[in-house]
Amino acid sequence: MRHGRLPFILGFLVAPVTLYSIFVLSPYFQTVQLSFYQWRGFTKKRWVGLENYDRMFHADRFWQALEHHAIMLVTLPLATIAFALFFAFLLNVGGKGRGGKTSGVWGSSFYRVVFFLPQVLAVPVVAVLFATVYRPNESGLINGFVLKAGLEEPIGFLIERNLALASLIAVLVWQAVGFYVVLFSAGMANIPGEIYEAAELDGASKVSLFFRITLPLLWETIQTAWVYLGILAFDGFAIVSVLAQDNGGPDGATTVLGLEIYNNMQQSRYGDAATYGVALCVLSLVFAAFTLRVTRRESYEF
């Protein structure tokens, strides 16, 4: 029976591994290969070696995009995880249940649905929604209020260079928070309630409960969330392409690598697009490996 186990396992793996190789691994290898060629789609490929990479490293838009990704890698995970942890803590540990047991605030089941709602909306829908929210006149949701409140000039969320990127990051945070509220809530649900109750009997405040119990026991979940949000920070193409002014503007203030890939493909510069794609892939892998290494801590068992 043991001798026949290996062929049996391999028989089940052949189909999924083959499909994965064809539809996932093969495009990656083809992209790396294409990055060493100049190709306009209908012409013959011409080998250029590292010329595409040299042109990319000397492009101002590439370094602008990297700067924006660096900002997003810090602000997007920090803001999203901070809000999600706060809301999840309130929904699971912020109140008192029957008999004085630790539980979520009143109406926590309803709030979970409200927080998760943005996650079920398609990204283009979210972008169109916030295009209305950020509209730079009295018809915009925010400017409509601030102008009526006495502000003389509307706020140019997407047309002012100093505000454009922050406005886009706010949209990404708004959309992502709900998913991580649910993720952290699931992690908190696995923490025995007796731990919280014993700490409260010893006089621990809600702040102490969060920093001394919840945060250490959720560390692995937070670590995973940081990696996922970092990958989201390297993306952002859909939000930027719909909301940003003048294709990554104003004056390149919101451009990202995904948008540069799209721009090169629109100009039929597929070799350059592949080069940006390779750079995006490498940066994502390096970030994930670095984050998992730096944030690694001893696991807690309970």
Automatic annotation (TrEMBL):
The keyword Transport applies. Residues 66-291 form the ABC transmembrane type-1 domain. It is a multi-pass membrane protein. Keywords: Cell membrane, Membrane, Transmembrane, Transmembrane helix, Transport. This is Sugar ABC transporter permease. It comes from the Bacteria. It is found in: Cell membrane. Gene3D superfamilies: MetI-like (1.10.3720.10). The chain crosses the membrane at residues 7-29, 70-93, 113-134, 163-183, 225-244, 273-292. The keyword Phosphoprotein does not apply. It holds the Pfam family BPD_transp_1. CDD domains: TM_PBP2 (cd06261). The lineage of its organism: Bacteria, Bacillati, Actinomycetota, Actinomycetes, Micromonosporales. InterPro entries: ABC_transporter_permease (IPR051393), MetI-like (IPR000515), MetI-like_sf (IPR035906). One of its GO terms (biological process) is transmembrane transport.
